[in-house]
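Cross-posted from the bioinformatics board.
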Amino acid sequence: MTQTITIDPVTRLEGHGKITIYLNDQGDVENAQFHVTQVRGFEKFSQGRPFYEMPSLTARICGICPVSHLLASAKACEAIMSVRIPHTAAQLRRILNLAQMVQSHALSFFHLSSPDLLLGMESDPAQRHIFGVAAARPELGRAGIGLRRFGQHIIELLGTKRIHTGWVVPGGVTEPLSAAKRDEILAMLPEAYANVSLALAAYKQIADRFQQEISVFANFPSNYLGLINEDESIEFNDGALRLIGPTGDTIENGITAQRFTEVIGEAVENYSYTKFVYYKPLGYPEGSYRVGPLARLNIVKSMGTPKADQELVEFKQLASGPVESSFFYHHARLVEALYGIEKIEHILADPQILDTHVRATAGVNRLEGAGQIEAPRGTLSHHYKVDENGLITWANLVVATGHNNNAMNKGVLQAAKAYVKDGKFSAGALNRVEAVIRTFDPCLSCSTHAFGQMPLAMTLLSADGEVVDRVIR
Amino acid sequence: MNQTFNQCLILACGNTLREDDGVGPFLAQWAEEHWRDDPRVRVLCDHQWTPEMVEEVAQAESVIFVDCATDCEAGLVRTMSVEPAEDNTKLSTHHLDAGQLLALSQQLYGAIPRNSLLLTVGAGSLELREGFSEVVDKALPDASRILEEAVRRFLDPSD
């Protein structure tokens, strides 16, 4: 007789998810699945809307990374308009994207994951949250809050609002940067550097305690996808995608937004509303890959900023080829946060950064457009089709959590096999299965979208975990 | 911690697209106008109260939290003192309540404001629309007056 263990809901993630672990008669793990249980429907209800509404519409998918959707959407709109945005607008958008990345990575590390890392996976769940961190390591609590405030305040300075800012529009941005705001951002940099340095030092100090977790937290060879510049440095706004294989060799380079659907496909599984994204030439699931901080640092040869470059060298020493364990997403996230702060400083020194020409204007010049960027969690793509009046007839969003979906499921199964034995588990063991998901920092709000029929299953479990009834549609 | 010190912080939250949940932003906007020329009063407003606000709270001599309430009759304007929360086991990453913000302020900065007040207006409706229900609309002048009195009391206790 089989048993089912369900973790519902998964805590300290963005959005709602469920994990089901299937045991065999011996009580050993046979299978595990990560279910995303949300439905959003943005691709459907945006049909009929004017294309230029899409940035602000799709930004409402999420409150953590609305900037990512603003930018990817604006780029898709600009492809429809056939415009190239002014240099200053491109630089300002870079600052916005980097600020968002810093605050998002700070949320992931300090609020969502540091309770496990600092307090231990077996610690009292009643204390394993930001208050517990604040009590144990108040300087880290302050650093996390400081980094989030840094990123959010830059977003507010540029776009008036911290969340769902409206400043990014098709063609550029609505307002140039003032000298006063530039100086205000520059004044925030020293504290930001101090906070991220503290976080990196703390992480490196404690990471060694988690050798067991490192070995089983989605630790397997995989492909990796991310944007890259021609000089092989990291890129978040432009460039083209590169896919590398498990040994680090390039599988495909130069995947532009226009070529995205040629090479990237989406599969559907009946246990989740999130699709499973894969590289078409290798098929599904062999063409699955990872995106996000771990993938980006595996793909690039440099960060392009001095401090982050030093950290990248240290990061790459974790393995002889690509770093495989998803535990190291935490490390990669902090390196990227450091890069973000450095790059913002670098961009603000651009002599054209205060230029007032920040927007190009045009109407519909193509009936289809696509845009892609690197969001904090990984590659994000928006693809639209419009009619002659510019009304959306079709929209598809491929988000980071979809790209990572197969890897997350494999990771959950790997961790479950390591920590659930003979049908027995501890609260810490279950937390580790959740913690694997948290390394990917998935944002489940984005990742659920329409594709034909919606699978829906309800499983009724008795008190001792036996399945007593199931309804499937 | 930055050295800025606010005598009175008005910290409002709410969503203007959810009818009476817009009470916080409305009173925040009223306060911004009312104390526009008074540097002793600082007004912050956002959709939710988040951990990132804790430094502002720690730096304030007095804080007035402003929000709608769903646990009382519609249109009722209430004020109550707030203490740092003792039970912080039920937390959201995106939203803290007033007591939790005070507790985090104490934990991280060893400081909380000398006066902490929560001002709420009972919600009549939280539908997806802008504007207020009739009963809350009628209560807003009263809420503004009570907010003004509270700020005056905190700025000048001898008054």
